[in-house]
Fold each of these.
Amino acid sequence: MNLESKTSFTALLLILLTFCGSIFSASAETDGIPVTTKSFKAKELLLQGRNANELGDFLKAQKLCKQAIKEDPHFAHAYFMLAYSSNSTQEFKENLEMAEQHAHHCSEAEQLLIKIGLSYFNATLAYRLDLAKQLVELLPKSPRAWIYRSFIQTENNDIDKARQSLKKAIALDEEFHYGYQQLGFSYLNLKPNDFGKAVQNMREAVKLVPESTQAYINLGDAWRGNAKLKMARQNYSKAIEKDPENALAYLKRAHSNVFLDDIEKARTDYQKAVELASEITQSAYSNYKAFTHIHEGKPMEAFDELKVVLEKIDQLNLTQGQKQGRNIFTLHNMIRICVHNKQYDQAEECLVKYAKVVKERMAAIQSERFALNQEANIELHRIYFLAHKGDFNQAHAKCTAVKKIYTELENENLMENYYGILAYVYFKENKFDDAIASYQKSDMNDIFNKYYLAMAYEQTGDKEKARELLKEVADFNFNNVEYALLRKQALKKIKSL
């Protein structure tokens, strides 16, 4: 039950960047999405920004897009690209609104892209799916148009269709490295997983852009999914060799060291990542460094370290929207640690702070749909807290409120969050059959849901299903606070079944 997975807009942006990358092309309209500007220099800057985005350098992409806008203040596509390289929900929305203001200067395809971006604030998933369909009908030979459609299909849980769209993009341009990377991420992150195909596609990307540090990082991630941790570490080390100043490569190598149970090496790499990180990523990397204490069985030491991280965020040279996103991420992790370890007074303090920051962001964004989604997110955290304490009447009442919000948003896929939290309430009530039925409707890409579904199966006597799920949990090898809290429990439970 990663509560940020489908309800946090910041998390959504990360998914967009992971699966979609850039959506621009220097090609003619029949081959790619057009770039409309009268300034040759502005176009060149944008295309360089696109390249930086696709190679994972979002800060460089931002800088180049801003330069492109300076050359052509009416450059809608540059505002759009800047939105998708931004560091906060507020910046994302503001730049999309600037793109919309200048949309009359650009092509129909570019206008569709702007509408897709804005639809996260003002329209339904069904509307977004229709826009993506229009895009590929308008530009059937554009690989990036098909990639955009694949993302929206993924959002709609049409994973097979999404992968077919990615394969279509690759067929249209077999040297399009980002198409392979996106397909690799799909096999790596989404069920049904195929970790072998994830490695295969990431290797193809490395062949096409052997100079790319990010390509080696992505290949390392694929090996991590295969539970080949030494191979993962080897590829992260290659990325470091190519760019010794790449903070993300050190972060990822630290993750692999954690799961190889080499905590001291992990801490060294995490510290290096924090030192090299930009201010925009520094606090997030510090969160992962704090998790090493959880893996050592000292969760409240992690909490104490995160308190320091939280205090430092306000001192960073960031916009208010950027600070809000980093505060929300850190507070989420602090809440999970406290509740899991029955430190309810501290959890309550963090919940109050979390709700306050989320509501400040809601006020800044000024979108009814966004606000509803964030209200649900606050309630999900509160339900987890209430269920863990045993206050089941309040927990069920809030589950009903969450269901009502998701119904109003007209997005059936968000209901997976509702079923996941409802299942957890049932589990804590010892209503294991009800828990199983609800978990089966939840997001099974979520490691928290998978772990507690396994526990529910064990309680009903189905040890085979429990063992199968726990094996998947134990081999997850991707670092978040939920996994840090559950990994050793899963490994221990496998031995006892």
Amino acid sequence: MSAGNQRNPWKTVGLWVLLMVMFVAFYRFFSVPGDVRDLRSLTADVQSGNVASLRITPSSNESALQVQLQQGGSYEVAHLTLEQAFSVARDSEAPYTVASESSSFPTILIQWLPLVVMFLIFFAFVRSRTKNTYAGPTIDELKKARIDVVPPGAVESLTGLEVAKEQLAGVASRLSPSASGPRRVLLEGPPGSGKTALIRWVAAQHQLRRATLSGSDVTAVFVGIAPARVRRVFELAKENTPCLAVIEDLDGFASRRVVPSVGPSNVEEWAQTESVSALLELCRLLDEPLPAGVAFIATTNRLDRLDGALLRQGRFDLHLRVGPGDAAEVVELPRVPASAA
């Protein structure tokens, strides 16, 4: 969604606050008794004998007198102390009653219940809007993001690269449960040399699915997401056998580890930590036997940038180098001491 189409949730919240204030103002206005008079009006009615009865509503703060008139009608005299209310009632010589203090709770409930209900509705709305607007994907969704399982497509012709095609066809033939042999392939070559086309070709030729992840999508801003995405590629490949687990542009996260410069930013430290975590997770997965029906293919443009841990003997079974045109060859993997992580 473009920035122009995004709605600012705080504008909506502000609108609801304004509506709530207006509601409270109208409610308080209309909840005031219809006829409120002062003591002078009560004195005048007492002197004219127009008062039929009085009712005192006691309160710890302010009390009130409800005046019932002889000719019908009533009004209220408010803002009195309890002593004033009793004194006025006795002086009027009109019959009076005292409202029970227990009745004040229902009165308060009736007065404030609409406001409480309005506040709860407002709170639920704001929480819903905030959650829907700001809540990003869950950790589980982040772990599974950017990984595609591609079904086998139609067989395409691919000229040249005969050595690489023959080797990859041999890898694909070993995906049956009874077969054995190299199934961990490092495919090296400059951009445009046909690495991705080779993978598509062998998948279509042998009707294999592909669980694919780009190396640039491995690093993440949440700790633990990078190694989880690497692990997810192998899990998806196992769930969709026969399948190729593919990580393209391996050097995107598995470059040679270096000591950080003095004073790196927190973002740089975090990114490096996540890349190293993903690298070590991939090394661990390559040290374990691949599930039956799964082969792993990693591509890279820069073999010289890969961390030595990946090139340790036994982690890749086959190293194929492809070049511009029809060049393709099987090369011996660099020998790295077994002490590498």
Amino acid sequence: MTEQDEGGGTHAGLPTADAERLRFLADAGLALVSSLDYAATLQQVANLSLGVFCDYCIFDVFDEDGTSHRVAWAHSRPDWPRLREIGDFAPPTDQANYPANQVIRTGKPVFVPNIDDAWMQTITWSESHLELMRFLNPSSGMWVPLSAHGVTVGSAIFAYSYSDSGKHHTELDLALGVELGRRAGLAVLHARQYEALQESAGQLRDMADHQRVLINELNHRVKNTLAIVQAIASRTLRRGVAPEAANQAFANRLAALASAHDLLTREEWKSASVADIIAATVKAHEEEGSGRFVTGGDASRLDARSALALAMALHELATNAVKYGALSVDGGSVRIGWEAPMSRPGEVVVRWQEMDGPPVVPPKQRGFGTQLIERQLGLDGIAAPTIEFLANGVVCTLTLPSL
């Protein structure tokens, strides 16, 4: 007969107490492998241990730095009035005398078969903790390591109470507690390893998704850049333009495009401030310290597409100003201002205004620079760009979507 009969007796020839311990160890082992939620399984084990070799049971789990977290506890009286408070007393790392901290330091159990008030005063770290210990009224206690593969991941407390059974632990109880701690340690370590693997797998999936997004974004940017270069080339190198002048204009426009790309690269191609775009663009057209560009505005930002469009527009305006406008004569200057009007949320308006240049005569035919601003860049994010050839200077207003 391998099961204990109703009147007591033996379990496979073992004394009743030993058979009960074996059944408890089997049930606890089954609970520990039933789930990867180690807090829930430790709570099951805490409940199972009551009456077998303790009146109350507590499980603490440690972080790598030794910080303790109280994850499970149980008392033989489910209505014990201060049961919830047990969870508030995970031992602080600087409390060297507390047995759980001794366990994490040494990886060995602490066995106190007879507990008195004087001993409790040496291991508690506050008046409230001592008061709770006195209310628990332990008669005997075992603090065993939750260890696996040479790593201590926590500790378990198994205690009898004078207020309940009044029993005291034996060396056999300690052996059972250590074996249970070993199995619980394996369960906690395996659960943590599984969590780490899940996190790593998630990170790898996120990295792969991010890589796909980057590749698609790069392809899109390359296509857009090639389209811009193709448009610049077809217009700049058209028939009727002297090769030397066309080459120089083409090189300058590519340099302006490259400058905008450099700025966006520094910003990881997410966005750029209008101030930075303007500063980078006009730098190529102004002698240091000349003060011919006066700029000012708010903290508006543009996405990558609109930033490139603005940089190209400003380059064309500056090139025309150097050739024919305010920057072609001494004393001429350009004012560039921008703002996000409160009456037009989601937009930023950039205004280019030339001053003190030669009298302006509206051109009979739009050049490529003007066409680039009015047509091509209008398709790249600039809404309704306008260029006015006023007698006292060219004025260009660009309205872009802001971030």
